[in-house]
Each structure stands twice: as C-alpha cells, then as structure tokens.
Amino acid sequence: MELTIALLAGDGIGPEVIQQAVKVCDAVATKFNHQIHWKPALTGAAAIDAVGDPYPDSTHDICVNSDAVLFGAIGHPRFDNDPSAKVRPEQGLLKMRQKLGLFANVRPTFTFESLIDRSPLKRERIEGTDLVFLRELTGGIYFGKRGREDNGDTAYDTCTYTRMEVKRLAKKGFELAMKRSKKLCCVDKANVLESSRLWRETVQAMEKDYPEVEVSYEFVDAVAMRLVQWPNSYDVLITENLFGDILTDEASVISGSMGLMPSASIGESIGLYEPIHGSYPQAAGKDIANPLATVLSAAMMFDDLGLPDEANAIRMVVNKSLAEGMVTEDLADKNKGRKTSEVGNWLAKNL
Ligand code: IPM
Ligand code: MN
C-alpha cells in the first residue's frame, strides 16, 4: 500500500520524538510491504518564526492531501509569559483542529504491567485500567464568543454547543463502546450548565439506537474524583472540550508516565496522531525525551488506516522495549536511561 503522511514535527522535543516514530513506521512499511511518503510541514513556533503563522496554508494543503497527519508538539516558553503576543503557537493547533474538522480527540489511558509500580496511584486501584476519553475538540468554550467589556476590566468566554456537534461526538462514543465493553459514560455538569443539559438530552435520545450500550451520566466533578479512586471502573467516556482537556491530563498520570500516552484527533476524514505530552522545552535537543507516546500514536494511525496488524506490531515492540528496560530516563533506574534516538533505533530493529 502507498501511504502519504504529513509530518508536523513542531516545537521543543517534537522533532526528536517524531524522528523515532518515522524510523519505526519505516520499519513497519518494510515488514508489511508498504511505501510511506513523508511530507514534512511547518507548524507551531517554528512556523511563526519561518512564515509568521503557526498553521500556514502551505501546511494545511499538505495535510488535506495526505492519508494522515503525524504530529509532534506545539508550544514555546518564549510565548508563555507574554500575554501581549499576537500570534501564539497554540493557535496553530486550534486552527488545525478546526480546518481539518477534527472534532473528536481520542485519548486512551491504560497501564503497563512492567510500569504499574511507577504510578502515583496504588497498584490495586489501577490494575486493569483501560479507558478511553472522547473529548469534543472543535466546540465549547475554546471556540465560543469571547471578549472584554468595561474598559477591559470584564472578560468573558462563552461555552456554546449545537445538538449536531454533540450528536456526532456521541455517535463516535457509542460506536467505540460497541467495539469495547459496551459501557459509555457521559460526563457533564447538567445540574448547573445549560450546554450540559443539551449534551445529556442529546445522548439520552441516542440510547435507543444502541440498546446494547449501558450509558451512565456523571457530573464532571465526581468523575475527577472517581478517576483517581477507581479508574478501572470506566471504559468509554465522552465529554465536552474543556472538561476533556482537564480530565485527560488527570488520566494521563494513572499509567505512571505521561511520556507513554498517545492520542488521535479524528473527524469526517483525515486523522491527526500526536503524543499528549507537549513540547517539554527543558528537554529539547538533549536526546532524552521518551519517544514511545509518539510511536504509540503512530500505532493508532495504522489502526485507523485499516492496518491493525501493523499497529499491533508496533505495540508489541514497545512492550518488549519496556520489558527489557530499553527506555529513556523517565522510565529507567538512575543513570540507566537510554537516549531518545537509541530507543528509536532499537524499536525499528526489533520490530
Ligand atoms: C491539548 C493542549 C491544547 C488544548 C493546547 C495546547 C491548546 O492542552 O491538546 O490538550 O488545550 O487543547
Ligand atoms: Mn490539554
């Protein structure tokens, strides 16, 4: 099979971890007789520096003409403490989500037996955790009406949802639940927010189309609590943009390393695959960042491209690297950490 993949390395450790994922994907291609055409494109602070736009049209063109987008990270500390900055790297990510119609962010959280004791949570609390968040990604407060009044002394951001937006996200949730344990949790704040009541009402109306799926409705504050008490009691969770942003960061620490958690952003057509850890500027250029989240994101990409054997081959070699201690410093015993590039080379060779 011929595959064209847009390669958006972005900022910070993005280029280093992306490079390892490319090595692994190329090894997969060799093993399964595919050919991958990589199309590098600018994004984030790197794109602001080069062309003044964190998601330039040239990058968008490359993305829409590809089968998938593999994405590193976006963000640069130079913008973080400068509220006056007119263009920010993060805007590139939001623009990309919107222009590519990526309305659902799929974030799994699972545990690895060999790492379970690295989790900040007790073993018995997290053993068997295997949940997936579907976070709505192109609506809500991130994209609502915002502004200032009162000479700048009052600011507002509005959370708006349409029934259509809720429905298409929930549909993905029901479909995923059907493929998994047929349990779906709708996370909202319907005791307070009108937009949450629209969510609940819309999901309730869809229940009859999926009679096998057992749906529960929980308030976001309660979910935040149960997520660290009994994460293994959840399976598929659907929620709006901001709740999902917060809860998926919370969930990411359960497994013991944020450096391991992949994600996919999907919509009508093309998907975008990215590690959830961000640009981690302190580690940039040091060849120490954990490439496994990006490599596992590539596995999600192969799954969505209808190539599950390729995806499983990646997951297997990642498990092997964990079991054999071929890991970066975040997962290694003191002074035993391997370099980012060394882990990438090892994975490609052992696939
Ligand atoms: C994420 C990030 C982004 C978000 C930022 C960088 C805009 O935190 O992907 O979760 O808030 O969606
Ligand atoms: Mn986030």
TrEMBL record:
Binding annotation for substrate: R97, R107, R135, D221
Cofactor, free-text remark: Binds 1 Mg(2+) or Mn(2+) ion per subunit.
GO CC terms, sorted: cytosol
Pathway connected to this protein: Amino-acid biosynthesis; L-leucine biosynthesis; L-leucine from 3-methyl-2-oxobutanoate: step 3/4
Main location, first listed in the record: cytoplasm
Molecular function via GO: 3-isopropylmalate dehydrogenase activity; magnesium ion binding; NAD binding
InterPro entries: IsoCit/isopropylmalate_DH_CS, IsoPropMal-DH-like_dom, Isopropylmalate_DH
Major enzyme class: oxidoreductase
Localisation per UniProt entry: Cytoplasm
GO annotation terms (biological process): L-leucine biosynthetic process
Cofactors that this protein relies on: Mg(2+); Mn(2+)
Binding annotation for Mg(2+): D221, D245, D249
UniProt-listed SUPFAM superfamilies: Isocitrate/Isopropylmalate dehydrogenase-like
Catalytic activity of the protein: (2R,3S)-3-isopropylmalate + NAD(+) = 4-methyl-2-oxopentanoate + CO2 + NADH
Residues at the site labelled Important for catalysis: Y142, K189
Domain Isopropylmalate dehydrogenase-like: 4-347
Domain of life: Bacteria
NCBIfam families cross-referenced by the UniProt entry: leuB (TIGR00169)
Quaternary structure and interacting proteins, as annotated: Homodimer.
Protein name, per record: 3-isopropylmalate dehydrogenase
Gene name in the database record: leuB
